[in-house]
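Notebook, p. 212. Picked up where the previous page left off. The plan for this session was modest: take the two constructs that came back from the sequencing core last week, fold each one, and keep the raw output in the notebook itself so nobody has to go hunting through shared drives later. Recording the first one now, exactly as returned: residue sequence, then the structure token string.
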Amino acid sequence: MKPGTSLAGEAQNAEQAAHSAASSKSMTMLARLGYAIKGVVYLIIGWLAIQLAVGHGGSATDQRGALQAIYEQPFGKVLLVVVAIGLIGFALWCFIEAIYDTEGKGKQAKGIIARIGYAVVGISYAALSFGAFSLVLGKSSSGKSSGSQTQTFTAQLLKLPLGVALVVLVGLIVLGVACYLFGKAYTAKFRNRLNLSSVTAQLRKGLIALGRLGYAALGVVFTIIGIFLIVAAFEHNASKAKGLDTALKELLQQPFGPILLGLVALGLLAYGVYSFVEARYRRVGA
């Protein structure tokens, strides 16, 4: 046997072993835990936004603010350990989606972009998990809010040659993500990833409606973030950039702000519940 052939066989065996581990029962359970934890995070964000909209306290927060809210509960550290593990599970599953193309996106340009998107989401949730572990270990916070991070990132880009163009490009990409989310809400193609054969037709419609409302709410938030990135570029003012928390605050400042914020908050609550649906019914694994 030629040495090259042997090496190729070993590489193939290693890839098969990695694929088997990625689609194992333990990885599947970890991924489902990740979807459930994501649901908890968005339920907290949506609930705090609802309270803010109706004037009963609350706050416009993001994923890191949700971690802080969990930490402040009885047995907060114990809960955060579970949350951190779940977030790592979700991040790993995103990386598996990107590497092994579990969603069948293909190797064409559109598919590669989608798979890169999965990897970016995985990185963001891995960073969120790190923030959760930081809180467990006694650090004062889970890190910068999404608004502060977005403004810092925008300021760094604006300092670069062609910085304004780069920020506009990022803003357009974010608007593209918003359009993608609105498209998911409209077509409801995400239902193809769910195994709902065991539920009634009426319940199936309700679960799909939750997903549509959730994706539409995320689309609204990403639209605000994208628009203000472009505004920040043209005004050369990084403080104009918004994250999830500041995008929700911006909604409140608009005419009929409490109503707008309340509707989006309900959508975020729906997305949180839909994440539990994914944890139970999503096709995960090989």
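Okay, moving on. Second construct, recorded in the same format:
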Amino acid sequence: MDIVSFSIKKPVTIIVGIILVVMFGILSLTRLPYQLSPSVEEPVITARTTWRGATPYEIEREIIEEQEKVLKGIPGLVEMESDSQNGRGEVTLSFTLDTDLDEALLRVSNKMNEVPSYPDGVDRPVISATGATTSPVIWIVLKTLPGNDRPVETYLTFFENEVRQHLERVEGVADLFVPGGIEEEMHVVVQPELLAAYSLTINDVINALQSANVNVSAGTMGVGRRDYRIRTIGEFSSEEDIGRVVLKSTGQQRIILSDVAIVKPGFEKRTGVVIHNGAGGIACGIRPEPGVNILEMTDRVQERINWLNTEILSPENIKFQWVYDQRRYIRGAIDLIKMNIFYGGMLAICVLLLFLRSIRSTLVVAMAIPTSIIGTFIFMQAMGRNLNVISLAGIAFAVGMLVDNAIVVIENIDRHRHMGKTPFEASYHGTREVWGAIIASTLTTVAVFLPVVFVREEAGQLFRDIAIA
């Protein structure tokens, strides 16, 4: 099939094809997510275990080593790193790029259940998927309003119970990173002289509290046609419940916790602090889901923040202050490249008009530039890419190559016109003479960029958009 002849003889078909390309290209553009940079996926899973009061040596010996023994055989595992700190241990697992993250999470969770046992007081390991795509794109800070003298750090429990779920339910939000703040807890201040007077020790107090603060299920009891489930509710719900815990009973004397200690509400020990503009606060970083439109997600989060400030935080005399988001940088970068593409195209058209001195010939190139750019969005959307600085830079480079090819074709057609040929003959012969050279030139450029599409490391994922565009 002679494409050149077909394009000249079937103008209506070509125009319909151009209209379809432009229409579907615009539809694809409206569905492309906007991001500052391409999504770089790195399958990394982190298992974090907390053991309050333990030293790094105990964390390493009692927890980390046991976890590493069961995790080292997971398929696709490339690297395993561990970090032991006071009261906390962390194991970071890096997998090959073709690993399915959900499947890897399931394998890690199952393997963690194979750890024989943990020391008393160790919290259940928290397993989460992390990586380059999970860096926060929004930062907000919880602060107190004027007239509120309560330290803002003490609102962490309120944030976890009343606020977190509203932010996590926003479409496009993957997770929250919340540094700073101290949670509420109940303090038991033991008086040593009273313990000695009753011949008790600290261990007696600890054992009594641990054994009393439990709910016990006693099975079911059948009465007639009905079965009643029997449970003993023993978890503490108030300071008085803790104070009534029996430490020692001799038949003649009963010693309860309030006899030897003071029970009062308090807060956990502060291990970090967040300072913003010279004032304390609780920071909240919002991580996006992979491939989400950052601009739309940020707008939804801001609407939810405004609602929270009005409905939930205002009665507590606190507020969220918006600190950082990427909207300005994304829009600025995209607008800059759009402007460069526009001005570059206009300058190319002016140069063509200056040298060709033909409005009709220049108009052909002027129509080819936006048509090709809009058509590119169809393939980008089909391949699951997003609109970012890198992909737009690739389009800008491609515009230059498109103009070069168009100049060669138009100039050769114009040469045949000056030889006295009809418009059809000039278009046909002028294009036939150079189409092989143009395809060879274009394929050379494609050959340079195409290998980048198949590179799976971070560099390949970062520059894949420019190669596709």
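Notes on construct two before I forget. The mean pLDDT is 84.
Flagging for discussion at group meeting.
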